Amino acid sequence: MIGGGKQLFGLYKRSNGIWSFYVYQNGRRVQRSTGERTKAKATKVMVQFLDRENEVSTSRFLSFGEFSKGVFDYDTGPIVKRKTLRGYSYSKSYARDNQRYVDKYIVPFFGRYAIDSIKPNDVEWWLLAIPERHGVGNKTANCVLGAFRAVFAEAQMQGLIASNPAAVVKPLSKRYGVKPRGCYTMEQVHRIFSERWNNLSYAACLLAATTGMRIGEVRALTVEQIHETT
């Protein structure tokens, strides 16, 4: 115990040989690397950190969940305000969607972490797991990543973090995991055209099915372009 019983801390050696330590601040575990390979030097770094703790703003230990609460609010959120005051378009639905992405996909995983303790590798593995964990497509996962980047950009603007850990994380492929569309079997095609429907729709679909023409090409046809021999 240290600091009048307000903190717990520990020192441990990582697999790469570098010593790190953790500090519980306001119920949150904050981890730091000392950058040292000997316990004595690592202890010195940790003690120096603890000595400075009382001089460090409590905002340094602000959790991601606390910071991101209402960050996309259309009327009061800082992100929307910064955009609109500079003449950029930012709709209420876009703001609402981004806040939903944060609350649904990001806060349950990162909400309890200090905002300055999240690293690019944390964001990388979290992003790769989104489609399987939540049953969504890569497009949705990339939208969530965009909201994550925006929150970190705001934190960087406010001086809470030195760099945006999500900025270097690349979006997922738009094609990966897309289910093949397939096509009708010949039996299904015969069943579809076995009975005539509306004459115009029937003719358009039959023409597309037998020629491979696109709907735009079918609609562009005129009577003058149709001949019995072609």
**What is the CA-atom radius of gyration, in angstroms?**
28 Å
Q: Estimate what percentage of residues fall within beta strands.
A: 5-15%
Q: What's the number of helices?
A: 9
- Strand count, sense and closure of the main sheet? 3 strands, antiparallel
Oligomer: single chain
Low-confidence stretches: 1-7, 54-60
The SSE string, one letter per element, is EEEHHHHHHHHH
Order of strands in the sheet with most strands: 1-2-3
Number of strands: 3
Relative helix content = 40-55%
* Terminus-to-terminus distance: 90 Å
Can you put this structure into words, describing what you see?
Strands 1-2-3 form a three-stranded antiparallel beta sheet. The protein is elongated, with a radius of gyration of 28 Å. With 230 residues, it is mainly alpha-helical. It is 47% helix and 10% strand. Strand 2 and strand 3 form a beta hairpin. It has nine helices and three strands, in the order E-E-E-H-H-H-H-H-H-H-H-H. The model is unreliable at 1-7 and 54-60 (pLDDT under 50). The chain has three domains: 8-56, Double Stranded RNA Binding Domain, CATH 3.30.160; 64-157, no CATH class; 186-225, no CATH class.
Short description:
This protein is mainly alpha-helical and 230 residues long. It has nine helices and three strands, in the order βββααααααααα.
SSE arrangement:
Elements: E1 8-13, E2 19-25, E3 28-36, H1 39-52, H2 64-68, H3 78-85, H4 92-110, H5 120-134, H6 138-157, H7 186-192, H8 199-211, H9 215-220
List the main descriptive attributes of the protein structure presented here:
230 residues; 3 domains; 9 helices; 3 strands; disordered N terminus
